[in-house]
Amino acid sequence: MRKNGQHKTINIKRVQFILGTLLLLMLLPTVGFSQTGPKVSAKVDTLAIKIGEQIQYKITVETDSTDIVFFPEGQTFSPLETVEAIMSDTLKNDNKLILQKIYSLTQFDSGAYTIPPQRIAINEQPFFTDSFQVKVADVVVDTTKQKMYDIKPLIEVERSTADMWLTALWILLGLIVVGGLVYWFFLRKKPLTEEEKVALLPPYDRALMELKKLENSKYLIQDEYKQYYSELTDIVRSYLEEDVHVTAMESTTSELITKLEMLRDAGELKLEDDTLEQFQKILQTADLVKFAKNKPATTVAEQDRKLVEEIVTKTHEGLPEPTEEDLLLDEEYLEELARKKQRKRIYWAAAIFAGIIVLGGIGSTIYFGTKKVRDTVFGYPTKDLLESEWVASSYGFPPVQIETPEVLVRQELELPKETEELIKELQAFSYGSYVGIFSVSTSSITFKEQKEEPQFEAVIGSTLSNFEQLGLKNIITKQEEFVTQSGVKGMKTYGTGMLERPNGDSKRAKYNILTFGGKGFVQQVVITWEEDDEYAEQIVERILGSLDVKTQV
């Protein structure tokens, strides 16, 4: 009996010990790990919308104030589209921060969609939200009130002239500047200089003015008699040539006097013998001063100037009155001089304008290169496409979103009977042709059987066979993965080949085949262009940058 009592006592103690140990173990996590980590949650305001309506997707993060949090950015909610991140907020709760961000999502195709889990990085550690099932319903249309119409066909519209007007404006401004410079320096009537004003005076008035100027000169004071008499005789000889029309500048004294006597005897000049004798003496004195270094008295020199002035006046008075024919001849002569002067200005202006164009062309050729200047002046098809107003649109179903220089036109294709049994629908759109200078096309194929993944290799092989049938030889093919701007992955097949034309000509060509798809459908974009066409390369780069596809049927 004693032993049994002891066993019972020992068992009770063991049980108490085990229970105490278990209680301690249960309390240890509470004591040692009382602090909790970051909390991430997400919710939506609705799980059912109509086409085009928006869902408010709210992400809440509760974490320490020292943590660094990164929310989702961009189109991470695909297949739903992110319209915008409409609000973000920060709240404090004791030592915690509550960060909230709301996204506006939508979808334009009816169906059932799954919003994938969203990745939130906290101190570079990933946390994921739950996924949500969303239904997008069609909008019911009452056809009794809202009439239904067929889709309108594509129509040609006039090309935008905005770029053309801008180019024309710059050209006009350039011509205005050049024309202004030409006018200012060559065509405008400039103020006359003193020499030009004197030259425009009648011979008689000019001779008197020059004699007056000689009277006020310092030649006699500075004992420069040779210079004085040289100008004196030049004035009177020049007058006689212009007004009397006698060759006086290159005639000797005796020859000049003889010519004047002949004019007097012929009745074309009324001069007395005393006047001619005085003029002869003055000319002889001038010859002695210029060639024999003779030096007359100052009073004699001054008197000779006065006598020359009288001779000029008497000669002018002795000339017969001009006839109407003489006046007309003089007027025509002056008009011809004006025309010659105007033509000279125009020639100079044209020469300078041509020089500016030539120098500008040479400078542009050196800086930009011959090809770019030639293409800018005379145009080039792919350059015109690159600089045209581009069009962004969706083609086919499932849609291919792409931006192109021209609208892609729907193509009606006939399928072989064996292919028709497999394909439910084929929609194709294109611009240009594979054998042309540039082409781009899209196609969307939906199959009757939507269970298996599409065979990309077969679709790509069919496109390459089409190239060969059109004359592309020695095709080099490379493949790599291609990712659209929204993250959809596809296959990029690219390379070069030699395109042989029916006329025997050949050229190097390049191509890109981009293939996407899923269960029951295939999407393809094909671009072809000439090798070494820098404008086409820029077009292709821009098209690939804009390319996106929908991955649901």
UniProtKB/TrEMBL annotation:
Keyword field: Membrane, Transmembrane, Transmembrane helix
Spans traversing the lipid bilayer: 164-187, 346-368
Name this protein carries in UniProt: BatD family protein
Domain of life of the source: Bacteria
